[in-house]
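Take a careful look at the protein record below. Let me know whether the structure tokens fit the sequence:
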Amino acid sequence: MSSIPNKPWVEVYSGGSPEMEMQEFHRLAKTMLEIQEKNRVLAGMSHPMRTLHSKILIGVTDAELKIDSGLPASFSVDYFAPASSWKVAVRFSNASGVPKADTLPDMRGIAIKIQAPNRVHHDLLMTNYPVSHARNSRQFVEFAVIAMGDPGSLKQRLDAHFGADEAERMIKTVMQGMRPSQGLHNESFWSRGALLWGSQPVRLILRPMIVDAQTESVAPTTPDGLREAFAQRVKEKPVVYRFAIQPYVNEIETPIEDAAVEWREDVSQPIEVASLIIPPQDILSQQGIVAMDTVDDLAFNPWNGPPAFRPLGNINRARGEVYGASAKNWAKEPRC
């Protein structure tokens, strides 16, 4: 447990105000659209793709988020009530902005769209590494721009821009996060950024209910191996993840604005509150392919949701602007 006193949480806006920060977000969104166009050309596509997480691995429309009957009262917020159940669409993806083989090192993401009451959708986005290499949105975009250049001189250019120590930290985080996956049903996912949960900031974790020891060390051997392995697994039995919440403790150990700092579990113990259940199905069938195409047309954004779950921190505040601009560019008919 933490020995640092718990202090009230605050958001700190870049430039000193929400208005000044939003001006910066407009500039960052423009830069990310330029990267999106470069990725389109690099991939030889006629139409822009998602700027990040371009390759869908799995897409299902019939998942269920089942809230625990013993949900603590402090986490019973809005539609998230004890023993309730909600229909969910799920998109698994590779993190790269250019589609590539599942055999290559990459990070993986999960995007969850919850069908909340009154036709409200609540989007939760997570990645299979607990922290971002970037502390804030400006650092994220600057790193992305530099990474588009010659790989042979990447470290030198990062050193020159961020300083040697910060560049080393960023490279280490990226290298630790980018790895072959041992199967999506064995992956854990983290929100990395904070969000409001009622009146308290939290981060989210999604973990497999059971790690399949038989496939724990089996990495994909084909370009679409992650989808093929998941298809075999979910055809026989449901894939179930446990959904956990980490509460804010203090600004040093659980910062709101710095997405590069891990909220360690010995400081903020995750509290399991729900199960994400993907029922048995044939995702390689015609019906499964239609479902995947449907999910791939969906625009996910952490700002889609009830106000009680408002995203927090600079990176999350930027995502509302950047993701929206990207979706307008890649989606034929963007749908929430």
